[in-house]
User: Fold this.
Amino acid sequence: MAGHKHHSHEEHSGTDLVDAARDALVASGEQWTDLRAEVFGELAHYASPASAYDIADGVSARRGKRIAPNSVYRILDLFVARNLAMRVESSNAYLANPHPGCLHDCIFLVCDECGEATHIDDDAVSRTVRALAEAADFQPDRPVIEIRGLCAACRPKG
Assistant:
C-alpha cells in the first residue's frame, strides 16, 4: 500500500495498526469511541481506497443495524485531520495511514483500471509544492498530489 522513499517508519498492520491509531487519536485530545474504533477497523481491512458507503455497509453488517454514511464521513474527516487516514480526493475514498499520526503530504499513484492507490512520501516534492503555493501568497493546508495512470499489474505487457 505505501512506499516511503525519504524516511523510515514502522508500518503498522492488523491489531497493531488499530492500537497505534487509537494511541495517536487519544494523544491528539480526541476520544476513541466504539463507533470510531469500528470505522477505523473496517477502513484498515481495505488494501485499496474505500468509500464512506463501503465502510458504513461493513460496520452496519457487523453491528446488525444501519450506520449512516454521514456519520462515517464525519469520523473519516476527523481521521484525516488527525493523520489516521488519507483521502484519495479524485476517488472520494480513504486509506488507513500505516503510520498513524505521522504528518506527510499525500502523493498518490492511482490506477484507473483497478483503483489501487499507492501512497508515497517524498519530502522534497512536498517542500517544493508548499514553496510554490507560498510564493503565490497562498497558505497551503494539506497538499495532495494524485497521479492517474496504470499500475504495473494493469499495464499492458510488451
